[in-house]
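Any chance you'd type out a single protein's sequence alongside its tokenized fold?
>
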Amino acid sequence: MNHLNQKIHRLAGEVTPSVVTFRRHLHANPELSFQEEQTSRFVQAQLRELGIPFTAGVAGTGVVGLIEGKKPGPVVALRADMDALPILEANQVPYKSTNQGVMHACGHDAHTASLLGAAAILNQCREEMAGSVKLIFQPGEERLPGGASLMIKEGVLQNPAPVHILGQHVMPFLDAGKVGFRAGMYMASADEITMTVRGKGGHAAQPHQNIDTVLIASHIIVALQQIVSRVANPTIPSVLSFGKVTANGAFNIIPNEVVVLGTFRTMNEPWRKEAHVRMKELAEGIAKSMGGSCDFSINVGYPFLVNDESVTRLARKHAEEYMGREQVVELDLWMAAEDFAYYSQVTKACFYRLGTRNESRGIISAVHTPTFDIDETALETGCGLMAYLAMQTMADAAV
């Protein structure tokens, strides 16, 4: 174990009690996307106490700090998201949400607390630091258009420009004390589909006098699956799912219109655009051929997330140095979406997973559920590893 490794392990142990306190405060005071006013002020207060200069008000509530090393060198960015979800918490814990109907059910409280802890560690490593670390506390990950896209537009990856960016996210399917990496394609793009099928409603016993919107919508839903099964290159991960069909008829009433909601996800931007065109043409064509019409719209969401091969390989190597090889695992493809993908589309990026599961304590719930929680021992790993990766990948970039 090298000197820096030993030092960061020691510092991580020292700052962890504060990181746990930060996480519990944030968990008890969650705020929805782009409403993170108190959270932003809390982050600013901690950076101010550490003497780390920062800029507030980026993309609304975002905060960007900068730790400058004593020696010149490259800039590395670290990112944490700050927003919570509109979920009523079911956990009975001392730090339970006090904001009724809002909950940190995706671990963003842990992300923000860990980055604050990493900032405290890195601030004490400035003598060894050849370069600078940009700290990005981001709003609005859970809601389109995504705080990452807005922060990029406002210049978060400029002045100074980082050579790469690292992001960390909790993983409740991975035991606390472990982390996971995957180079290349990792998470999917996510688009929201709305189809409104129109026809002529009427009595179900007189189908010849109607244009059956339910039947048309059914044909469209089935036919659209061919886009994935027969048009997509099978080497490109693609998912098309429909989660809501609203047909306000009755046992014997065919409605004038049917509304269908769904999601399309993939990991290839050119194919994504082509699929949008093909789905729209197919849906509208089927509706027209059956005497009706279809308004097909796509709310374009986050792009797919790609981890830079070189940065991720080096980050994994350093994670093994810091934690031991047996604690670092290979991740599977994940068809969920994450707005960190915006960073990965414009600069070298590595988005990795922090294990937070503890079956013996019943901490097993998935994210976005009312019973989600983390094993807080993971926070020492979270802050220490992030600081170590920043220092070591900065040194790699300087070579």
The first strand starts at residue 54 and ends at 58. The chain has two domains: 3-187+303-398, 191-299. The chain has a mean pLDDT of 97.
